[in-house]
Amino acid sequence: MGLPTHTAQNGNGSLDTGNARLKELGYKQELKRDLSVFSNFAFSFSIISVLTGITTLYNTGLNFGGPVSLQYGWFIAGGFTMIVGLSMAEICSSYPTSGGLYYWSAKLAGPNWAPFASWITGWFNIVGQWAVTTSVDFSLAQLIQVIILLSTGGKNGGGYEASKYVVIAIHGGILLLHAALNSLPISVLSFFGQLAAVWNLVGVLVLTILIPLVATERASAKFVFTHFNTDNGDGINSKAYIFVLGLLMSQYTLTGYDASAHMTEETKNADKNGPKGIISAIGISVIFGWFYIIGITFAVTNISSLLNEDNDAGGYAIAEIFYQAFKGRYGNGVGGIICLGVVAVAIFFCGMSSVTSNSRMVYAFSRDGAMPLSSLWHEVNNQEVPINAVWLSAVISFCMALTYLGSEVAFQAMVSIATIGLYIAYALPIFFRVTLARKSFIPGPFNLGRYGVLVGWIAVLWVATISILFSLPVAYPITNETLNYTPVAVGGLLILTISSWISWARHWFKGPITNVES
């Protein structure tokens, strides 16, 4: 069953169903509704950014299973991610608000559970998003450091190796640029978002063709599609265990598509176009991500050499692949460095869009009074931009990265919230939709019909599965340095969220607050 047809006049005099639905849900139109369906897609697609996730974690895939984990793990993670995305898209169609996940939980959990469901979903979502921004911009800082290293001669040629303090300073500069860009009107951000999507699409195609074409030595098709690497040096011999750990690259990459939901209050006909943004971003990312993996893996001939920290790129596998491909063909690696620049621009756009999504979540969450100093964070300027939320997100992401100065282990634990914490936030409203709201849920224009509950349960079970798998040890024997702190980080967030609810928030937080008269 679909919602009644909603109509409302926008600034151009045309009818907009998303605007009308937002008013029905109890909210004023405060942000400028100017995004097309392609712009909405572009924000999610540029946050997923296969060039970002695959490049950053290609080492993990090579180390744990190699080509088999990279190829087939990608499709397994991609298939289940699409199932999660379909469930989210169905809910987004019914509730197209910037609050996204936490608002959905409140509506689907029912009046008795709404405040608590909204509270826990919102904090997992917002902290997960901050962790995504932290990790994306930090990965860009690390790539810039590798580009500088290779440009100055490489590790074996006396190249400059930046200290961790320099990397943090670069990270801070990147966040500053992202906050400045996100202070511009949404029409400008829409242009950058569309440019980011095109850059990712073209970049994947160019690198997929160029790198194996330039490389003087190429892997065989048998190696690319059937080789399973068990030589991980981490004391893990079980092929099933190794394959599971290799999935991390794929699942980390395929996150952030909730951005389409957070941008719905700025998207035309959002009850239709928001869901389209989610589904298309996942689907196109899975296809283009596979092309990228295939192309790069055809240039892999020696896994141990690529992962060796004493190679020219300092153990950064894809950087070493690019550099050596051009060096082997032309006698120098300049072309490889330029290719790394293409990836760096894609990561920059990814971080920019991530801050955009963060700020809209902060804006919506504070609009409902869930954050300290809420009245400050949900203010919009005369260009209809939640300017304070933008800068808050940048500052918090920088503070989260500072843990790297104290302990790389602590930093990795914190960043793990970017995958597991965010997926828990994805799963909670879906869980409420297939349990408490199974019979009461009223779908919007996009819906899964009679398959909605089945798809929802598969999505919830997949998130539960990866939450367990990614909490497993990644090296043996287990020491302070090899312990997987993911369950500690995610468990700590859960404890903080629940304890703050019991001791404080339950006395005043009532869930989403309408700001228009019914």
From TrEMBL:
Record-linked InterPro entries: AA/rel_permease1, AA_permease
Transmembrane portions of the chain: 37-58, 70-89, 101-124, 130-150, 162-181, 193-215, 278-300, 330-351, 385-405, 411-432, 453-476, 482-504
Membrane topology: Multi-pass membrane protein
Superkingdom of the organism of origin: Eukaryota
Annotated compartments: Membrane
Cleavable signal peptide: none
Record keywords: Amino-acid transport, Membrane, Transmembrane, Transmembrane helix, Transport
Primary location group: membrane
Listed GO CC annotations: membrane
MF term (GO), any: L-glutamate transmembrane transporter activity
NCBIfam families, per the entry: 2A0304
Family to which the UniProt record says this protein belongs: Belongs to the amino acid-polyamine-organocation (APC) superfamily. Amino acid/choline transporter (ACT) (TC 2.A.3.4) family.
Name of the molecule in the record: Amino-acid permease BAT1 homolog
Organism: Populus tomentosa
